[in-house]
Amino acid sequence: MTSYQSRLGSGDGIAEELAEGQRAISIAEFFEKNKHMLGFDSGARGLVTAVKEAVDNSLDACEEAGILPDIYVELQDEGDYYRLIVEDNGPGITKEQIPKIFGKLLYGSRFHKREQARGQQGIGISAAVLYSQLTSGKPAKVTSRTQSRDEAQYFEVIVDTEENEPEISVEETTTWERPHGTRIELEMEANMRARQQLHDYITHTAVVNPHARIELKEPKAEFKYERATDQLPAETEEIRPHPHGVELGTLIKMGEETDSYSISGFVQEEFTRVGQKTADAIIDSFRDRHFGREMTWQTPQAHEDVAIEETVTEAVVNKGQEATADFADGVADTLTSHDRVAHHQVLEAVEAVGDEVQAEYGTTFGSTVRENAVEAAWGAITATRESDIYALVDEATTTRKDDAVVEAITERLAAKFEQGERHRVTRDDLRSFVDRAADMTEERDDATFGDTARENIVDALWETAALVPDDPPKIHDVAAERDTASELLDAMRAVDIMSPPTGCLAPITEDLVEKGLGKEYDADFFAAATRDASVHGGDPFIVEAGIAYGGDVESDGSAEVLRFANRVPLVYQRGACATTDVVKNINWRNYGLDQPGGSGVPNGPAVIMVHVASTNVPFTSESKDAIANVPEIEDEIELAIREAARELKSFLNKRRSMRQRREKQNKLATILPEMAQKLSGVTEREDLEIDNTMARIMNDVLVARERDGETVRLVVENNDDTNADPEITEIVDAEPAEVNGANVVEMDGEWFLKWSPTVSAGEQATLEYTLATDADPEVAVDGIEDEKLTVDA
Amino acid sequence: MSTDDTSDAREQLLSLANQFYEQFEDGTVPSMEVPTRTKTNIEYDEDSGVWVYGDRTSTRSANSVRGAQKLLKATYAIDFLARQLEEGRSSTLRELYYLSESWDLDEAQFSSQDESNQLIEDLEIVSGVTREDFHMRPEESGATVMGPLEIREQTRRGEREIHCQEDVGEGGYQIPNNPDTIEFLDNDADFVLAVETGGMRDRLVENGFDEEYNALVVHLKGQPARATRRLTKRLHDELDLPVVVFTDGDPWSYRIYGSVAYGSIKSAHLSEYLATPEAQYVGIRPEDIVEYDLPTDPLSDSDVNALESELEDPRFQTEFWTEQIELQLDIEKKSEQQSLAARGLDFVTDTYLPERLTEMGVL
Question: What pLDDT is stored for residue A147 in this prediction?
Fold first, then answer.
């Protein structure tokens, strides 16, 4: 920024001199000097970042156009340089946009949108172009073909780092075999030392984008990642900010720029999830803060000494006896119909009754009379405020406070509400009244009022105070006054408002998280959890977690943690990421994983995946490598992981018990037959059949067939201690009869009889039907784990 | 060794096998029930005056791998024993353990001799037949008798008539594994003196205690084998001789007396056949340690534990034992039989035993 400090000094030659050396630097120039912030700090990393930016852009472009992405990445070794080629089948970019998208930093369609997208600032791809240009001196070569065009556009672009403007060195039409799409070719000083990160990035991208097909060609190797689903991510829509997520500065700016007139209109127009009801709640809450509330007092009843009617009558002079009596009577009636009244209600009553009486008697009840009447009535009502406060304080404090103390504080509190005032207070005012009264009472009367007691008294008083009817100021006035704007912000935050709509977010969804993991990891078990949307700073976000376990997953060392933000893999700065912190702080031993020392990333053949989708993912830096430690996001990450981990736990438990069961079964399967055989030998009796005994020992579900002439009985015996719901299908090669409720389907001369009995623990069910004696049935049982099933048929 | 016994024992084993067979046949889980063999499950039998198993039982069931394995081993053992009986042969407990190594199925093999011994005990209990009738012998215990007694023993090489003083050497007559093969012919004995240690037995024999007092000196050799206990019982029952037990003055030795007099926990099913409830305890009593001021050793922790456990042992719930054990816990000392030598080599035969035996009314 230019400085004019020298004006204060004597000579003005220095100022000019300094000013000459000072000039605005272009953003491109800034990033040229700070390329590490964008992830281009080394040749190894630069290559990964360039691939990442180009692929992210391609995926976004395809999805926006509703096209299943088909992305080709190629790296060519050019000696000291690498050539990076990224092609997609996206909608293509119009001729006018090409140079700007690739050649100008901060140009993008998303920066001002509240919508989930991979890129946000429009820095990434142009930074890659810039990096290539700085290291190789070569321009970026861009080919693009839009769906409607017969031919493609070819450009060579460089960034003018001083002006942040693209410069097009070559522009021509060309032919391209893709019907539509974009291809960018960058040459840069780079090396393949970060090959592992590159592969991680591509693999993880494939996991988190199961709808994409990706191909990676390296100088000496080629990898293909097929798509696992044809389902594109749900289309996202842009949303307005959420009232819980704006900051004061933003709110003031929005207030200044809005076309709305009232606060109500403003909050309904400019924010999401605010309708009339919520707007009213916000305004009530704003009134409480801006105007405060009016204390209400119990209305004296007619028989009491200072009845309203009498004092009002006294206050009215020269209005005729009948009119005065009617007026006083009317005011008194209106007010005593409420248990408690506030000052504004007295005003209303006097106004309404005054108008009535005035119309009826033709006598003018002018403002002086009315004011006198209000004062008189309010005086009568507030005369009893001490006993009012006593009742409230007594109710709000514990019974252990003795009467004298309650009376003492009551007296002091009542004194804060002066005779003749409107008794209008904010909650903060009330608290300071109570604090002062309590402090005094503590000092003078040897009592103690703890924080809870004070707060209870404040609550009791605030509860009885009435909302004021004053009209809130106009929104432009609110925006003009910083304190008022702050009151509005507080008011918005205090009101319960529905979470922002999630249409702006496209979670991968549990099913596809599992599919994505299943595509790249050959594991035994997959679990996924997609949380409901939540809000941080007015931006909705959704956290998803997935776990893959066992199978071919690398079992040495610690589990692999995959981090994603808006479907983009985060491969660097693992240690700085909120995701990693959360994973490390979970007690994985609870979920059956090995965790040396009880904290840290667990060990074993596991992949833990976390995806944070938001209209604005808070990153720790511009290079978007790590998610910042935002408590709301961390909480959701933890809940998502725990949800998936619970499934993992039950899988592991089950697997363990199944393994023990299998071991037992294997052991018994050698022991018992031997024993049976030995017994037959010793007793010289015939060989034994031991399946039933085995089934009973293993708590198995035993399905046995008995045939008695034409009657076939399938006996289902449940030896387990929980209900069994087997699906039993008997396949026979002759037509069965008297099938007793079985569902029978005939197919190519075979009959399928299907039963789905529920057999309670320790019970048995008999399924009976009739079949020709020479027919040959065959049974299939589903719905019971193999380990727990014994079929003797 | 009558044919009757053999076929009866075989019959009993086969009926157990048949029980398992039928359990399999019915599709139920094979199992057998045996009394729990712990000190909390033995009770005094008023009629016989010995300690027998109580009502608590343990089930050996094929429900678990362990249980199934036990039953498998039992089946193999039954098969082996049935065959042995059929062939009129016998074997030792240790041989059974080693023999299992030859069984083709690893799961059927015994992992220790304790296991095979326990299994034989199980079979004895369930079938009601003693292991002697299964023709299972323990290892040679080498226990001996010395005294004025003439017996006839049926050996594999014919009958032998032996006088247990005149026909034997210094070592005495060796008790065979199955003392029921002995027939008592004649005796001049006044009482039976069962001695724990070899050293003391030799001292008594050298000093001619058996001759002078007409005593049958039975060497227990530590915890007495079944055969020794059986013979002692027979000497008492058939020859009407009082039995006294002479051991060291420590908790382990009291248990030796206990198993002679009351029956042991592990073979409580055979108490009626093995125990001599009338047997009396001579010493060394904790009282003697004090009275004779014998050389002592301090009680070790395991001694103290053993004494405390004996205080809870139903077999030792008598006034005499409670008093003696509590005294010993109090003085925290124990003494060996041979500590009597501190008062001279003849002290035991000239003074201690005559005094004690007179006191007890045996002499």
Answer: 81
